[in-house]
Amino acid sequence: MLAFIVQRLGQAILVMLVVAFVSFSLFQFVGDPINNMVGQETTVAQREALRERLGLNDPVPLQFVKWVANAAQGEFGLSYRMGKPVNELIAQRLPATLELVFLSAILALVIGVPMGVYTGLHRHSWLSRAFLTVSLIGISLPTFLIGILMILIFGVWLGWLPTFGRGGTVALGFWQTSFLTLQGWSHIVMPAFTLALFQLTLIMRLVRAEMLEVLRTDYIKFARARGLRNRAINFGHALKNTLVPVITIMGLQIGALLAFSIITETVFQWPGMGLLIIQAIQFVDIPIMSSYLVLVALFFVVINLTVDLLYYAVDPRLRVERRVAAV
Amino acid sequence: MPSTRACGWSGGSRRSDAVAIRAIGTEQIRPGVGARIVDGFRRFLDGDVFYSFRRSPVTIVASVVTLLLFVAALFAPWLAPYNTYDVASLNLIDAFRPPAWADSGDPAFLLGTDDQGRDVLSSIMFGLRISLLVGFASVVLAALFGTLLGLLSGYVGGALDSLIMRIADVQLTFPAILIALLIDGIVGSMLAPAARRDFKIYVLIFAIAASLWVNFARTVRGSTMVEKNKEYVQAAKVIGVHPALIMLRHVLPNVLGPVLVIATLSLAIAVLTEATLSFLGVGVPVTRPSLGTLIRIGNDFLFSGEWWMTIFPGVALVALVLAVNLLGDWLRDALNPKLR
How far apart are CA B275 and CA A148, in angstroms? Predict the structure, then answer.
């Protein structure tokens, strides 16, 4: 167990170092940072002074160490385009993305799991067929088209929901939340559902397949023979055992939600991290790009580590097998 | 139905015999190249793969749709009603026409026109060309590198194997679309602004290929490790064939089946990735719009009710991706001997 954690931790640190190196090299490849910061009338002497002050005359390995040390403290420098500190911009945008991802994950679970259970239990009912057909559409349609269709139907034709931005938000300290006003909810519901749809269909299909698998096992037959009620068998015994893969997949899918939030945020002009990085790429805003790279890598590494550890917490069989293997 | 199948077999053989005999008549001993192609084609029509194709209506529809879209893309300059790259032919009076069947539609523009007066149908056909070009190029690149790395990894093993597979593992923890987006953004930003427009499409192809190679590498590695221990490889080793030759000549042909399946499914992913990146405004340059770019441009006019500029390119994209996906699924089952 300990060896496993150490190995995973080592891999995570290695990944972070590689990503940090890529992020750092971005600055080396793309133009002269001094040119990006000063005006045309700056003299050569002033440029040289700035260069010295920013440490750009240091050897590259030393610059890298300094950069990593700064990054570890959340210091990523100034955005070229907006002239503001990158960490401030990210702190401003992060809550919007996290709320969107959080709500999408909840939606996907709360709708996906019951749909999966239903289609697993009632394989041949017309409702199951309808669910499966809808899920096929959900998988085939790219995220941005789903968003566009929703905007067209609910925003333009029906006029029920607002189509862009976050609307009114309430500040909780530095955190701007959408969840406390009705207007905030009306703005978040379409983007969240757009983002959730793919994950929702994925979870539904996964739960369905696992339910079909579990319902065939001997212990379910035995539970039926013992005369347990259907509800107890289906939910107490069958569903519980399907949840291990669902937890893992969901953990990994939170990363995917983060990636796909870039698309959803562009469609709905949602002022989050995704919109920030897309604009940064279009305007070659290196400090934002490199900090986003580091942040996303950190996010994924932490998620994967957590999921690996969750495996052990949730599935007792793994612990036993390890112990047996060790003996 | 086994009986029809058997009939198909014998009938086909007789016909191909006839072809072969005729070929002997004209070409003395060996059948000519043309006859051999015809013969091979006949054998394909009688084979298992074509049999399972005939038995699946969904697959037939999917392949017809795919074929239609490929033809529309390939022959767009001749088939499209208008040349959308020819700015001189555009007339602003024709801008914002709804589809032909709507009230103010013009039969000359079947699917309507965009803000510049471009015919939407022609734009879709030319856009399909760019989408498929990027899709095919990135899949070929990914298949080439992925297969090569997989072969090396599986055949050589050892430290090289662990290195390649660790890289693959790490890459798999990130969504492919994110990898493509970041590589596209990073490499794109390294280009000088003037070069960015000309080389952007190659950067895009490279970025998508880099997000796809892992699937090829892992699959080929798995099959190579199985093939490696078979007798024909042992025999080749014993008679002193060079390892590179064993890999390329003997192992490679035996691991290509799954590569074909992954390539088909990857084409759908690549087209989708390209469309997504172009929709986000970081894909192909706007001077040569792909389907994703068309959707992005049309999206700006969605709120004023000009839905046809977005929806029709969207339908074309979904039709292409869905059809290719269905074909890939069928191919996977048809080439899998366990399912026969």
Answer: 14
Q: What is the pLDDT of residue B16?
A: 47
Partners of residue A252 in chain B, C-beta under 8 Å: 173
- Are A166 and A184 in contact by the 8 Å Cβ rule? The answer is yes
The minimal CB distance from A281 to the residues B282, B305, B307 is found for B282
- Rounded to whole angstroms, the Cα distance separating A6 from A11 reads 9
The whole-angstrom distance between residue B167's C-alpha and the CA centroid of its chain comes to: 25
Residues from chain A contacting residue B177 (CB–CB below 8 Å) = 259-260, 263
Comparing C-alpha atoms, which of A200, A56, A57 is closest to residue A116?
Answer: A200
Q: What is the 3-state secondary structure (H, E, C) of A63-78?
A: HHHHHHHHHHCCCCCE
Q: What is the pLDDT of residue B84?
A: 73
Spatial contact of A76 and A287, defined as CB atoms under 8 Å apart? yes
Q: Which residues of B95-115 are buried (b: 16+ CB within 10 A; e: fewer)?
A: ebbbbeeeeebeeebbbbbbe
d(CA B273, CA B279): 10
pLDDT band at A317 (very low <50, low <70, confident <90, very high): low
SS3 content of chain A, % helix, strand, coil (to 5): 75, 0, 20
Decide if A229 contacts A236 (C-beta within 8 A).
no
> In this complex, is the C-beta atom of A16 within 8 Å of any C-beta atom belonging to chain B?
no
Average pLDDT across chain A, whole number: 79
- Give the Cα separation of B184 and B206 in Å (integer): 8
Q: Is A159 on the interface with B (CB under 8 A)?
A: no
- Asked if B317 lies within 8 A of A145 by C-beta distance, the reply is yes
Cα gap A62→A60, rounded to integer Å: 5
SS3 A26: helix
Cβ within 8 Å, pair A296-B302: no
Q: How far, CA to CA in Å, does B126 sit from each of A218, B63, B77, B87? A: 58, 21, 8, 14
ipTM: 0.76
Give the C-alpha separation, B204 to B202, whole Å: 5
Inform me whether the pLDDT recorded for A284 exceeds 70. yes
- Among positive and negative, which fits the CA dihedral A94, A98, A101, A104? negative
Q: What is the pLDDT of residues A107-144, one digit of tens each?
A: 988 998 888 888 888 888 888 888 888 787 777 788 88
- Taking a C-beta distance cutoff of 8 angstroms, is the pair A259, B175 a contact? yes
Distances (CA, A) of B28 to B32, B38, B62: 9, 18, 43
With H, G, I as helix, E, B as strand and everything else as coil, classify residue A176: strand
How confident is chain B (340 residues) per 10-residue block, as mean pLDDT? 39 45 50 75 75 80 89 82 72 71 70 75 88 94 94 89 85 82 80 73 89 91 89 89 88 87 90 89 80 84 79 89 87 70
The mean pLDDT of chain B is 80
Confidence (pTM):
0.79
Cα gap B193→B40, rounded to integer Å: 52
